[in-house]
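step: validate -> pass
step: tokenize input -> pass
step: predict -> running
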Amino acid sequence: MENILEKFLLELNNGQIYYATFSQFLDEYDSASLYIRSNYNLIISNIYYQHYVLLIDLMYKDHRLKNIMESNFLETIRHCPNPDFLCVILSIYLEEKNNKEKKDFLGSYFDKLLNVLPISNLFSLFKYKYLDSYFENKLNERILSNKKEFVKGFLVAHRVHRDLIDNDKYFDSLVDVIVLLIDELLKEYYIENEIHLGYTDIVFDEGYYGVVFMIGNKVLKVGDVEQYEIPNHRRILQPLVRVDISSLVPKDIHIPNCIEVSERVYTNGRISKDELYVVWKELYEDNILWTDVKKENVGRLFRPNKRYFSKELAEYGKVLGFNRELDNSKDVLRTGELVVIDRDFIYDLNTYDILDVDFWSDLAIEFERRYKKEKMIDQRSKSI
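step: predict -> pass
step: emit ->
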């Protein structure tokens, strides 16, 4: 018993309390809960940072400590060593509560919580905005006081900054562009729908492409693309904005190379292999090769595949990164049709040698074989 107390106090004095030691201390030392109650702030400020969530969870689930944990909620948040942990910490406190209990608990802390949390970490509260309109309104007010810092925090949390974090002026330039586009898209939604959206109405996501901001019926993407110049086609989701931004910084500094705005599409429904083949085949017959064929890279149109914006937009062509213009002789795809939303690995076979394409998904390989087989059968039937 004395040994575990000595070990615990040694780690506390060294500023690195580990999970194994703390767990043993809690189980074996008779006065552990009393000691923790009396020294809560000191203890949580000296937890080894990678074990912070584990120890908070361990203490919260201990019936002897739950009350002290709840009364020191703000201190737990304040001492959290990593913004990535905040959502998990909030879940530990709230997951077992019903909606009324969540609302009452957060309500007693919400204004102070907004001041404790850096504005760059406020997105960790978004999942609780539905509990009370007051929460949502106060979140919006806080974000609007420094939109750039909020967006910067989201990008940092999703690793978009990479080596830009050491080149603040370039990172800030990227943030400025994103904030301007977000504000423009919020205005556009009001013009089109006469409904005001706030920052708390934005759905934030992350994908292979980079980060995604879903704003009303528009999607803003920031990330890397395999190749910027591609052919345009009605089976490719038509962008409102598509800009190569890699030229904003010196070549030795990495920056996400594309900012894009397009219509939102439905991506959660059932999509059959045959439907994917129809998309692949139409592109192929127009001498466009799509080699990253998978359900995650297509979506169903909520409305016809056109560009919808109240202001005049840049025309097609080089401005949007297209090296082949849209064929206007073909009908515009209607609501419910599938379009490609991830434009990586799309090649114009008028200018690109198919033998130089080194990435093929399994479905792309299967579809090419299927297409050749169909053509062979068709030729045989014509020769009979």
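step: describe -> The first helix runs from residue 2 to 14.
step: cleanup -> pass
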